[in-house]
Specification:
By secondary structure, the chain is an alpha/beta fold. The protein has helices spanning about 30-50, 75-85, 85-95, 120-135, 165-180, 195-210, 220-240, 240-255, 260-280, 300-305, 345-360, 375-385, 425-445, 450-470, 485, 495-510, 530-535, 540-550, 555-575, 585-605, and strands spanning about 10-15, 20-25, 60, 70-75, 110, 115, 145-150, 185-190, 285-290, 310-315, 315-325, 330-340, 365-370, 395-400, 405, 480. Helix 1 (about 30-50) crosses helix 3 (about 85-95), helix 17 (about 530-535) packs antiparallel against helix 19 and helix 19 (about 555-575) runs antiparallel to helix 20. The protein is flat and about 80 Å long. The protein binds one RNA strand through helix 2, strand 11, strand 12, helix 11 and helix 12.
Amino acid sequence: MAAAKRPAPSLIRAIVRGKSSFLLLLITPVKDAIARLRLAFETAFVTAFGPELAGTDPVLVPASNPKFGDYQANVALSLAKTLGQPPRDIASAIVSALAIDDLCDPPTIAGPGFINLTLKADYLLDQLRASHQSDRLGIQTVAHPQRIIVDFSSPNIAKEMHVGHLRSTIIGDSIARVLEFLGHDVLRLNHVGDWGTQFGMLITHLRQVAPAALTNPDAIDIGDLVAFYQKAKQRFDNDDDFKEQSRQEVVCLQSGDPESRRAWQLLCDQSRREFQKIYDLLDIRLTERGESFYNPMLPEVVAALVETQLLVEDSGACCVFLEGFVNKDGNPLPLIVQKSDGGYNYATTDLAAIRYRIGTDQADRVIYVTDAGQANHFAQVFQVARRAGWIPDNVELVHVPFGLVLGEDGKKLKTRSGDTPKLKDLLSEAIERSRTDLHNRLTTEERTESPEFIGHVATTVGLSAVKYADLSQNRISSYAFSYDKMLALQGNTAPYMLYAYARIQSIGRKAAVNLSQLDSTQLHLSDDSEWMLLKHLLRLDEVLEAIATELMPNRLCEYLFDLSKKFNQFYDRCPVLNAPDPDRTSRLLLADTTARTLALGLNLLGIQVLDRM
RNA sequence: GGGUGCGUAGCUCAGUGGAUAGAGCAACCGCCUUCUAAGCGGUCGGUCGCAGGUUCGAGUCCUGCCGCACCCGCCA
């Protein structure tokens, strides 16, 4: 695979500093260091071994250990066989041909043939200046923005949001934030469950026991609605007459019967208001486009499948038989797109959504953030869409699966039983526990704070803790929900990171200078911890780029945790305010850049920072 | 039975085909006249589920097996 496919960024940008002074700087974010190293290596390959090696991947990766430098190129090892030479000889030939004096100290060859690269101090300091002066910390937007749909959260109307919606909501939000920050055109869609069988049963039941709820917007509240839903579900499972009536009701609704539609509209509005409270609390922005939106398009989906000759009728249902999926008897499994009673199901809706998102929304990439249990479903739906020819080559559909939120006992929280914790209760408890912690601390530290301060800190810490605990896990695996762990003040938690930020803000307040206008012309770093911190700061763009590709927010958490640790090490070893210049200014600049990096990173996780806590 | 995913330190988990596998928690030992000790340094802790294979090199890729979780025809 050819390396260095990335487009060369524009290198020159004017920076306005203060009111009168202009500086013209070469801005080369550190990711350009890798890009430039790649180019240099490619040139060196050709110089050293001839044109047939053009386009060889230099296998450049961050050094596995700081003592080896900043980056290492492992290419010599992989070339040993094709070139028929010892790797160390190859490495030495590459190094002789390598023109990177402006970027790196002289490369060294180590072990079996690793080429170790250490970025020049001046280069790093230039990068720090550039980051500090940039309101985006030197992170450029992508050269070719994509239209990206992130489909997440997706609660069901007439049910309360529960813990099962937590992960989709905050993982989806974080992914959307990262992609937006990188300059993509992101459409955040809430594919709410506002259609289908469940509505038939609910409306049928309400018509019989609480008809007012179907005509009066405020007749019942959401909690009652949930109880009604549970009762309706129970009747549906046990009463054949009721089941039949419910199915009829679905048909009425889907065919546009005015009375059914009005009832449905009322139920949706009521749920919507409840959802919005939680989204406001969590600072989540979403565009609602529920399953019902696709209702008019469902017959087209079936018709289009007929045209492609993929559609097969089986026991009265319209199916597409799948490749690679078999039932217990070893026969191909069908994806049912129209039930024997003429109704459509969620596979049909998802196919319609794919067609609409590609055809009308012009999406380049569609990201589905749902639990891992739906992996089969998406694999099947994607397969049918692909075989039907609905997915152009340049469009990517991707399921972003995540594991379950378990109780502290390690058992799954059931989604369909009544005792599933409600999301709003869970968030409230996190906030309350955070408030209690804060009170205890204020008491022991003999501090007095206003009720506003306490309320704001408790809410921010509580919600951040919940979000961070979730996002910091590898999303594939399930995790046990523990208030004690997520609110812990030490370890890889939101409070630890918020504290690191607050410490820096405290320095900033006492420094009594405008941090955005520090004079960066005389930077001087002396301690190892300063260099470690600086190098880590400059890695942010690599991390964001990886997240945009792999859609793993835990990478960002890991980066921020490392950053906090490196800052605390720096803080421990390097006095800032009492240091003589140029150390003082250099350290203030490092601290300020760290604070802004933390704030940005946490913001991309959906977490707000606190100046004091 | 078929499919998907996961098995890494006592516990919870990171880990991008590269050098001696890393954090946090817990335990133990140190460090506050100095910018928020919610911090920092150190000690202890591993047959990366098992067995093969590919590779110069495997926790990572492939195959088989064991264990756990989830999914499997008209719910979403």
